[in-house]
Amino acid sequence: MVFVSLGFFRFLLGVGIGGDYPLSATIMAEFANKRTRGAFIAGVFSMQGFGILLSSLVFMMVCSIFQASADGHNLTTPLELAPSVDIAPVPPESDLAWRIILMFGAIPASMTFYWRMKMPETARYNN
Question: How far apart are CA 62 and CA 93, in angstroms?
């Protein structure tokens, strides 16, 4: 059931991000003036790289916290198991790791949704 939940929420996250990338560039192109339009669109796409870097840092921090928790349980790693054993013991709280990582990803998505709802319509749309 955990993999089904992870797959569903990861798919939902992918749809949201996939829809946001072209929308952000379009919104910047409509609101920016001709002189600064290129710089604004470049800024939008450079934030994608910053987001990837930040998400990697969040992933490493959360996983290191849960690794320290697993070390407290004195669990063996998969490499230390006997060849006849297929599954390594997993601490029960490790199920929370992927949920916490996705929750951190929901914070900027929620802020973006809020700001987009508060954004006025463009002059081209109102005319």
Answer: 12
DSSP string, 15-84: HHHHHHHHHHHHHHHHHS-TTTHHHHHHHHHHHHHHHHHHHHHHHHHHHHHHHHHHHHTTPPPGGGS-TT
**C-beta separation of 24 from 44 below 8 A:** yes
Q: CB neighbours of 48 closer than 8 A, spacing ≥ 6?
A: 21
What would the pLDDT profile of 12-50 be if each residue is shown by its tens digit?
888 887 888 888 888 888 888 889 998 988 888 888 889
Pair 94, 70: CB distance under 8 Å: yes
